[in-house]
Write a structure and sequence with these properties.
127 residues; 7-stranded mixed β-sheet; 4-stranded antiparallel β-sheet
Length: 127
């Protein structure tokens, strides 16, 4: 069965960095766009970053542009989210997701476009 396993979350001070990883198994990784979403307490789940199957197209939410970088390693079936200059408002549970796309350059930014989800990893940024 398909599994997406996130790792790398934790507690960090404001201004610090974390790198999240998401290892995918049970699917043909190259056929799926990948995304990172987050959900803070009392808030809706929001798209943070997404990357196309080919890696050529990337999307970032305005709130993280210039601070977060999404990347993928097809040899390892893994997608990463490098998070720099973290702020307390980045505190949330971060979820990895895989969504089938018809074209290699397409990204997906809405939750319903994703077929599979990880269990989430907590990121807490202290002020």
């Amino acid at each position: 069965q398909v599994q997406l396993v996130e790792s790398g979350g934790g507690l960090v001070q404001a201004g610090g960095s974390l790198r999240l990883s998401c290892a995918a198994s049970g699917l043909t990784f190259s056929r799926y766009a990948m995304g990172w979403f987050r959900q803070a307490p009392g808030k809706e789940r929001e798209a943070v970053a997404a990357i196309s199957r080919s890696g050529a197209t990337r999307y970032y939410a305005d709130s993280v542009k210039g601070r977060f970088t999404i990347s993928r390693d097809s040899a390892k079936n893994t997608v990463y989210l490098q998070m720099n200059s973290l702020k307390p408002e980045d505190t949330a549970v971060y979820y990895c997701a895989a969504g089938y796309t018809a074209t290699s350059s397409a990204t997906a930014t809405r939750a319903y476009e994703y077929n599979y989800w990880g269990q989430g990893t907590q990121v807490t940024v202290s002020s």
